[in-house]
Amino acid sequence: MYLCTISGLRRALVSIAAAMFCLSTAARAADLTVYTALEADQIKPYKAAFEKANPGINILWVRDSTGIITAKLLAEKANPKADVVMGLAATSLMLLQKEGMLMPYAPAGLDKVDGKMRDPAASPQWVGMDVWASAFCVNTVESGKKNLPEPASWADLTKPVYQGQIAMPNPASSGTGFLMVSAWLQMFGWDGGWKYMDELHKNIAAYTHSGSKPCRQAAAGEYAIGLSFEYRANKTKKGGGPISIVLPKEGLGWDMEAIGIMKTTKEAEAAKKLADWAATPEANKLYAENFAIVALPGIASSMEFIQGDIDKMLIKNDFAWAAENRDKILAEWSKRYDGKSEPKN
Amino acid sequence: MATETLILPDHPAAAAPLRQKLGRDDWIMRGAVVALGLWLIVTVLLPLWALLSKSFQAADGRFVGLANFQAYFANPALADSIWHSVWVSLLSTVICVLLAFVYAYGLTRTCMPGRGLFRIIAQIPILAPSLLPAISLVYLFGNQGLVKWMLFGASIYGPIGIVMGEVFWTFPHALIIITTALAISDARLYEAAEALRASSHRTFWTVTIPGARYGLISAVFVVFTLVITDFGVPKVIGGKFNVLATDIYKQVVGQQNFQMGAVVGLILLLPAALAFVVDQLMQRRQLALLSARAVPYAPKPDATIDRAMLAICSLIAFAILVILGVSFFASIATFWPYNLTPSFKNFDFDMMDGGGWRSYFNSLLMAGLTALFGTAVIFTGAYLVEKTPRFRAIRGFVQFLALLPLAVPGLVLGLGYIFFFNNPANPLNFIYGTMAILVICTISHFYSVSHLTAVTALKQIDQEFEIVSASLRVPFWRTFMRVTLPVCLPAVLDIAMYLFVNAMTTVSAVVFIYAPHTTLAAIAVLNMDDAGDVAPAAAMAMVVFATAAVTRAVYMLLTQGYLARAQMWRKR
């Protein structure tokens, strides 16, 4: 009789444990683990559109800032968890390419992709999706209160009047931060670039983890100026933030968001389908809702608050150089600005 | 000088000179104790061991001795963090314990009105993730802060913000300990003091403070450990002020430098373990203070003191309510600070970082499973450790393992879990990235306090029950289900509640081991704040708080009626 109670209890426990196990590892036949640095508010429509076109494949996003996704991929090199990398900076994908972690694949419709926006090989290891570029978010209310002139250029940002008013993303974690630093070093030269950053550092109030945060903080008035990128600026203004969007006149830092398949994937077929989809006009139309320049030429963008021709304002960007020197640049940056002790409050 | 030490048997059966033959019950219980020990070895000891060994290895697994530690101390920014952590924690501890002492004094030693309400308000911080006070402080004292002028131009980002946030978050922990210490004092001492015409000032310093000193010391260690190992507050409001807890996160999540993370983890383990050891030694001495003839102290009304205490306690309670209220208002404002029309825009979590509403439901599931399985394992475990006859060495070792998590910061435990369970050679590797590992890790993280609660309740039950049952040949599990469990029901439910609330609000251990489909609400708060979605972060923190608060309220309402009936036997 007692044994009966016990076995009843045990049966209950076993079934609960089994249920728990099922909850955690429920059958997911074609699950595709996709590492991404796309914005959280972008990935939802992308996922919905892809899964609608490819029933049976389920995207599992692992989303974080560019630097963190890059570091994660490199750290997991021996035992990669990702199947596809989508919406990561081209400079980061080039690092993975150098490490031999990507699978060459020519997606359907590759011939229509802008030649500048892909790995030039016949079977490219990465294919671009869109271009994202730097922009300032300037809080109009706070600027008025503090009598701040609206900055028009990178050079303006170093003026003493902006001391403690600027937030900027940390380039080690944020792709948006890195493309700015890379742009300054290319525009002003290695020494000139660091000299510029030394000056800028005096005005920086906070280095943030994410590339979106400076713009959101500027919109909330926490800091008057946030160095960010055009998608977030447009979106924040649309959401009611009292900001004006400035594209600095010396030229915009930029990078490409791109897609690549991990060589180690066990879901190669599903992964290729995602790469194919990423180069379709449908996908590019979705990108164009967020960015001015996309991989397929001739798709019109719809960014209502961005004025000026972004295409013409992009600096001449040597991605190979930026990818090659990424570690060196970040180490130098950390040494100069990260390790600096707390400024006097 | 040879002296014989007299070892008292811990219950009469053990005193029998003849060794009893072990019965079926004994074997089952011993087997279960061993199983529990193995469980704790796998879920606590081995992950810690993995962390320790990792700190002596290079990224490729080569043994490199102290090279990682040398690299750590050679980096001035990292080494600064030790000093930062220590002084910020000391300052927070002093302020928190002082405030909690005054508040506890008001609750236990005066007749000020509204003590019941004050007790409830003081529990608020325990129901929210530690990120909530930090977010509220940004809204209060940040550059757009409502009362920014109160800082006289100082910045909230840095030590000031950390200390304020930590004091808020740890206040209930200190209060519970000090209230208990003040509540057990002996009224006869005060009568004696009065008879000797000691001034109230003198009575306070010679009777009240010494009587509460162990409680105070315990509160100091608990708060210090909580602060130095907390990561939520400095992450949100620390600015460029680095502390150990944020360093671990940066090394591991930001740079994927696991070896350096292990080094910082070990450094963080030291003060926490030290505080634990000292506290354990102190508590051993506390027992001697209680005597059977003590008369409970009943405060007498004193208009001046009551009014003064009411003023101070109101101020503290007001501060707690303000901090909670600010997050609430920020979360329902359309666009803080420019458009304050209420809206639910910030609750549209699916368009933000952190995993959306799914994180919230994951958290509910995780907290529910933790409460269910955790209570079952911990209470049964405590029963076995307490009631298994003889078998001392093993029971002692299991008891040690059960208390060990108290000395291990959550971040350190979580990091150990990566090293141990993410190793492809580990046969348990399959639970990595599942809900199960989050539940197991959370149970281990909060094991000790639950275990101590269970042990205290079990110690109140007379050993006679077991002896009588055994002589009637009733198997132990029947006694357990029919007698022990019902009698200890209040403690069992308390444990379940404690585990549920902590599982809802915890960030530290699980932040390293959640997977894309097991994101959690409290971690979503962190990720949304990181991405600059501060108002939605506040909104999610409020959702977590509301869940914990409602659960707690429902629990209180339900149990009051039920427990009153079930515990009727305690009354005459």
Give the helix/strand layout.
The complex is a heterodimer of chains A (345) and B (572).
Chain A lengths: L1 H23 L6 E6 L3 H14 L4 E6 L2 H10 L8 E6 H9 L3 E2 L23 E13 H7 L19 E4 L5 H14 L1 H14 E5 L4 H7 L5 E5 H9 L4 E4 L7 E9 L5 H11 L2 H8 L4 E2 L15 H4 L5 H6 L1 H13 L7
Parallel strand pairs in A: 1-2, 1-3, 6-7, 6-8
Antiparallel strand pairs in A: 3-10, 4-10, 5-8, 5-9, 5-10, 5-11
Chain B lengths: L11 H4 L8 H31 L12 H8 L1 H34 L5 H8 L8 H11 L17 H25 L3 H9 L4 H30 L2 H6 L6 H11 L3 H29 L16 H30 E3 L3 E4 L14 H31 L4 H12 L6 H12 L13 H11 L1 H13 L4 H8 L4 H12 L1 H17 L15 H10 L3 H33 L6
Antiparallel strand pairs in B: 1-2
Summarize the structure.
The complex is a heterodimer of chains A (345) and B (572). Chain A is an alpha/beta fold.
Characteristics:
heterodimer, A: 345 residues, alpha/beta, D-Maltodextrin-Binding Protein, domain 2, 43% helix, disordered C terminus, B: 572 residues, mainly alpha, MetI-like fold, 2 domains, 23 helices, 2 strands
Account of the 3D structure:
The complex is a heterodimer of chains A (345) and B (572). Chain A has 345 residues and is of the alpha/beta class. In chain A, 43% of the residues lie in helices and 18% in strands. Chain A is built from 14 helices and eleven strands. Chain A has helices spanning 2-24, 40-53, 66-75, 90-98, 140-146, 175-188, 190-203, 213-219, 230-238, 268-278, 281-288, 310-313, 319-324, 326-338, and strands at 31-36, 58-63, 84-89, 102-103, 127-139, 166-169, 204-208, 225-229, 243-246, 254-262, 293-294. Chain A is globular. Mean pLDDT of chain A is 88; it is low at 1-7, 21-28 and 340-345. Chain B has helices spanning 12-15, 24-54, 67-74, 76-109, 115-122, 131-141, 159-183, 187-195, 200-229, 232-237, 244-254, 258-286, 303-332, 357-387, 392-403, 410-421, 435-445, 447-459, 464-471, 476-487, 489-505, 521-530, 534-566; strands at residues 333-335, 339-342. The radius of gyration of chain B is 25 Å and the shape is globular. The chains are: A alpha/beta (345), B mainly alpha (572).
